[in-house]
Specification:
With 225 residues, the chain is an alpha/beta fold. It is built from 8 helices and 4 strands, in the order βααβαβαβαααα. It has helices at 15-20, 24-34, 59-71, 87-95, 108-140, 149-185, 191-200, 213-222, and strands at 3-12, 39-49, 74-77, 100-102. Strand 3, helix 4 (87-95) and strand 4 (100-102) form a beta-alpha-beta unit. The longest helix is centred in the C-terminal third of the chain and has 37 residues, at 149-185. It is flat and about 70 Å long. It starts with a strand and ends with a helix. The mean pLDDT is 77.
Length: 225
């Protein structure tokens, strides 16, 4: 039985299908059947009317992914081919930091992404092996390697680490911007009211267990609000 929080994503390929509901009803039925029983909540529902030829022009899918990150939810789709025909895009979901499940193939999530992750890891190892072989050949030909490169790389690594943390914080703030906008529109204008609204919605704060006015202030500063 289904457990936890979910964000549903349904897609039809043409505007005509979107207007008529053709195809959506079957997907909604598959999602409902999957969620039948168990202890679960749906944190968001998104419907895309878009061609399946492109994985980049799917604004509703990006909103669904953002909602998954915000609520700590799984992305639930009716059919695996409704998400993407591109295996590389599925691997990108793993990098996005979310989990997904297909109602028609509940085990495909871990299996598919796991296999692709192993393929990617094998390719990484092959590149590493070729790099080591090239360095060994260069050294054998008298090319000087090393020097003080270690200290430089360490400094660069620290800078990249700080940049990565800042990038994640900014991405999180961007995900939260629409929700904060909705809270403001409903009358929550103070930092305390916004913090209370985010806590009621079950959205985890950047640190700790509950939102504080200060945490809200920092988030607003990141999104330039």
């Amino acid at each position: 039985m289904a457990q936890g929080k979910f964000v549903t994503y349904l897609r039809v390929s043409t505007k005509r299908q979107g207007d008529s509901g053709l195809g959506l009803e079957a997907q909604q039925r598959a999602v409902t059947d999957y969620l039948n029983g168990g202890a679960w909540t749906v944190a968001g529902e998104f419907v895309e009317v878009e061609s399946g030829k492109s994985d980049t022009n799917r604004p509703q899918l990006q909103r669904a992914i953002a909602a998954c990150r915000v609520y700590g939810a799984k992305l639930l789709i009716a059919k695996l081919d409704r998400l993407s025909r591109d295996a590389g895009f599925l691997l990108g979901l793993e990098k996005a930091g979310i989990e997904f499940v297909a109602a028609d193939m509940p085990n495909a999530n871990r299996l598919t992404v796991g296999v692709m992750a192993m393929v990617a890891e094998e390719e990484r190892r092959a590149i590493s092996a070729r790099t080591k072989a090239a360095l060994a050949a260069a050294k054998a030909h008298g090319v000087k390697l090393g020097g003080d490169r270690g200290a430089t790389l360490s400094t660069e690594a620290k800078v990249k680490g700080v940049a990565a943390v800042q990038a994640r914080a900014e991405a999180r703030a961007t995900d939260l911007a629409p929700i904060i906008g909705e809270l403001r529109a409903s009358g929550a204008t103070s930092l305390r009211a916004l913090a209370a609204g985010l806590n009621r919605a079950g959205i985890a704060p950047p640190r700790g267990t509950t939102w504080s006015p200060m945490a809200v202030s920092r988030t607003l500063a990141r999104i330039g609000a």
